[in-house]
Amino acid sequence: MAKTIFHAADKRGHAKHGWLDAHHSFSFANWYDPTKVHFGVLRVLNDDIIDPGMGFGRHPHDNMEIITLVLDGKLEHKDSMGHTQQIVPNEVQVMSAGSGVTHSEYNPDPAHKTNLLQTWIFPNKENVKPRYDQKMFAPEDRVNKLQTIVSPIDNNDDGMKINQDAWIYRTTLEAGKSISHSFRNKSNGAYIFLIDGKLTIGDQVLNKRDALGISEADSFEIKADATSDVLIFEVPMV
Length: 238
Prior knowledge:
By secondary structure, this protein is mainly beta. It is built from no helices and 20 strands.
């Protein structure tokens, strides 16, 4: 029988730093919950709202695969590899921190807030050469089907590449529709994060920003009770 763990949206960590309103699915910064440290190699899933003209100053990372999605607004990224890029909704940014990189992230819009999701995934190779990439994914290509937005570096699909045997999918599932997914590897688990809408997975109902972890299963089915924007992280559990 499948093993599941439900994470309610209102049980996430929350930090308000004036210009930053952050919710943490897993232990982060000053918020620690021993039951929510990671899900397999998925270490961080932060839901950040950044005030106009504000952001994170230059700071370091190493040996982590960092994936950023902007849900609303825009984000400007600058790093020690020489990149200065803006990220907008429907784009995905991947930064393999590897042997070490510094970067800054801020909201360049003087009037509107930015809402982003940032994920950190433990790599399966350490101290690789740092790498940066970003790509636009057409929203019409994920209606009632899984759109692969991140995949392993040796995979030939359209996903952005990371140094881990992990996949991230996004789907817009219309009300009344359902979709099933079979694990790429039976030892993997899936962390389903509902950006917006309402879902049923097995006996569990998910509302906006709820999440469900599934492991020790071959597959699972998602049913949309309302039109839903969904992220699925398929990750090694060790």
